[in-house]
Task: inverse folding
């Protein structure tokens, strides 16, 4: 039969499991790939090789696991926090924060074994850190080189009034009763109420007689704008009035027994009573999951991050504390704020809400289970109204979102079409980059970096996998730098026979000129006067590095003594470890007759690859039979070949086989964006 030309112009399915190559009835299979290695799937369906990783610094102690945390205050004030056993360091804009010529750092008390399970949340300049083995801590930025780590004191920040006195005025003698009073102060920020003062001295008076009264006085509290007065009645102190001054007159005011004096709750004070997770929701700071009470939740008073006081009977402004009663007992691992508050355990996802739609209080609280998948201790990521989290079993990542049709939250498996990337492994870290390309980044226990191009409103969810030479990924985080989110990673590498851990940042794929294209790992950029000798590359000692010099691919060099020498002087150089990016199409299926591809041997004789702003590359039926495209045409000597935006025809080494796959490889430090692939295939019997 005549040769058949087959066009593939959509790669939005991402890398697919080989088990799906017979499922022509699934729409995503037609847009999927057999391999998407070091390529990123773009939301509009093309694929581009990932940019390189720039070297930032070596962690303080390369022998130990180290973790990255996010600190995002504004578009211009963001840091990556390097958290190691016993210390914090800080990095931003691809560099380490220095003080006095050395990396600025502060100490912590965390052990290396506990770093992975530390949960954190940020509000303003304060990061709250929790772990069930440690008292809750706050990491506060008072200045770029003035960070303070402190244990949280869960009490009102407003001081109690002092020196309370009660003086009686008794115009007419009668049948006396004993009276005692206590006073609290309210501050200007949300009327936070202080702890109560000490009791006044008991005084005897008959307030039922006109002209008899008690005058209560106290000392002023700094920052207080009002004071509440409570009178002892029926075994407790109950509210009788509020004033702005420093005295109050009780003329036999009836105590309001529905509004009693605040009770102090000494939470998170001892070992095994420290929370495992933390979040902000409806102006409260929530905590949950101690060792002794794994299904319990605590929340501060509204507009206070510290006040855990409550009243009996309860008030809407009280701090909250409640337990979830469940048939499948587990522990609360995450608190996820959004439209509602989601609680995630190792077995179940729970919804905490007010059914009437208002604020959650002790009187409006409703707790309902939503799904029964469970999660690990790895912190989920939130993408708009979607929560992505590693499932507790199976190694897959799930998507939890509200579905109005079911009036609740549903959990979907995002890994079903790429299960070969997740089965029998676990996710060890997770983060999300919003711009320039929305990608959820995940690291698994084998050290691979997995990317999910994720635009749920457009039904785009495409997986791609990434690796790096002589290294595995251990931690990842994103922070906003300029108008994009920058991905920072810790890469554990073997360099010159030694194990090292480097902090590296994924470079922007945008480049103003060809010379600025950055497609090397653990790399560095030089820009200045033309030269041939480049030093200060000691972190890549003994490695063979790729070089892009003034936009042209230079011969690889071995770093010796922290330096390399190029055969030609260049003014702009990108130097780093080479990246190999592979793209493999699924087995061929002729669109006019699916059985034509599934049951016959076939051979690809020629291919046309449409690319955009790309360098040279190779193509062929497999990695052993790749044909490079022509790189140089009519450029002047010494000028780098221009990047290509065109459809490139390429005759390849034909070979009959059952699959008819097509491989495209980019191993040069140059960009490659594949728009579509057309193959001319011959089919046998």
Result:
């Amino acid at each position: 039969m005549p040769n058949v030309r087959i066009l593939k112009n959509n790669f939005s399915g991402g890398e697919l499991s080989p088990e799906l190559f017979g499922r022509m009835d699934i729409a995503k299979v037609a847009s999927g790939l057999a391999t998407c290695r070091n390529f990123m799937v773009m939301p509009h369906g093309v694929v581009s090789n990932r940019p390189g990783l720039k070297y930032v610094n070596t962690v303080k102690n390369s022998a130990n696991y180290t973790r990255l945390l996010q600190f995002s205050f504004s578009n211009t004030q963001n840091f990556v926090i390097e958290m190691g056993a016993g210390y914090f360091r800080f990095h931003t804009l691809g560099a380490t924060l220095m003080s006095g010529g050395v990396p600025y750092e502060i100490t912590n008390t965390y052990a290396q074994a506990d770093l992975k399970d530390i949960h954190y949340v940020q509000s303003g300049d304060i990061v709250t850190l929790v772990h069930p083995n440690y008292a809750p801590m706050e990491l506060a930025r008072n200045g770029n080189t003035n960070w303070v780590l402190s244990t949280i004191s869960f009490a009102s920040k407003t001081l109690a009034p002092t020196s309370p006195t009660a003086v009686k005025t008794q115009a007419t003698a009668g049948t006396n009763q004993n009276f005692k009073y206590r006073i609290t102060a309210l501050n200007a920020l949300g009327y936070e109420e202080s702890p109560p003062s000490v009791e006044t001295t008991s005084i005897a008076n008959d307030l039922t007689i006109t002209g008899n009264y008690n005058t209560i006085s106290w000392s002023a509290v700094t920052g207080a704008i009002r004071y509440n007065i409570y009178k002892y009645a029926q075994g407790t102190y109950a509210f009788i009035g509020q004033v702005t001054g420093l005295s109050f007159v009780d003329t036999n005011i009836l105590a309001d027994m529905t509004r009693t004096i605040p009770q102090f709750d000494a939470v998170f004070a001892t070992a095994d009573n420290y929370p495992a997770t933390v979040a902000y929701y409806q102006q409260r700071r929530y905590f949950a999951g101690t060792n002794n009470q794994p299904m319990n939740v605590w929340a501060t008073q509204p507009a206070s991050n510290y006040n855990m006081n409550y009243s009996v009977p309860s008030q809407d402004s009280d701090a909250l504390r409640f337990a979830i009663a469940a048939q499948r007992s587990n522990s609360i691992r995450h608190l996820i704020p959004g439209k509602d508050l989601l609680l995630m355990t190792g077995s179940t996802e729970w919804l905490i809400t007010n059914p009437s739609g208002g604020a959650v209080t002790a009187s409006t609280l409703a707790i309902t289970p939503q799904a029964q998948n469970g999660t690990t201790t790895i912190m989920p990521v939130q993408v708009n109204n979607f929560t992505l989290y590693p499932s507790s079993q199976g190694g897959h990542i799930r998507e939890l979102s509200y579905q109005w049709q079911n009036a609740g939250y549903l959990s979907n498996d995002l890994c079903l079409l790429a299960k070969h990337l997740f089965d029998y492994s676990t996710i060890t870290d997770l983060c999300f980059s919003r711009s320039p390309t929305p990608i959820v980044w995940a690291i698994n226990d084998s050290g691979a970096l997995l990317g999910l191009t994720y635009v749920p409103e457009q039904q785009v969810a495409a997986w791609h996998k990434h690796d790096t030479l002589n290294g595995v990924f251990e931690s990842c985080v994103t922070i906003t730098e300029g108008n994009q989110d920058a991905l920072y990673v810790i890469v554990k590498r073997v360099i010159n026979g030694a194990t090292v851990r480097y902090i590296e940042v994924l470079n922007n794929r945008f480049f103003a000129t060809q010379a600025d294209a950055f497609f090397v790992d653990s790399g560095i950029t030089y820009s200045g006067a033309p030269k041939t000798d480049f030093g200060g590359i000691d972190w890549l000692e003994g490695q063979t590095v790729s070089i892009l010099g003034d936009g042209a691919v230079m011969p690889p060099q071995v770093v010796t003594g922290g330096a390399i020498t190029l055969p030609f002087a260049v003014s702009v150089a990108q130097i780093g470890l080479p990246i190999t990016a592979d793209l493999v199409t699924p087995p061929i299926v002729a669109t006019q007759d699916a059985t034509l591809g599934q049951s016959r041997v076939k051979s690809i004789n020629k291919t046309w690859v449409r690319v955009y702003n790309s360098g040279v590359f190779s193509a062929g039926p497999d990695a052993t039979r790749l044909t490079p495209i022509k790189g140089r045409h009519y450029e002047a000597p010494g000028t780098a070949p221009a990047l290509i935006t065109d459809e490139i025809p390429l005759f390849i080494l034909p070979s009959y086989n059952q699959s008819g796959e097509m491989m495209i490889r980019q191993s040069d430090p140059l960009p490659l964006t594949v728009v579509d692939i057309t193959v001319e295939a011959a089919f046998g019997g």
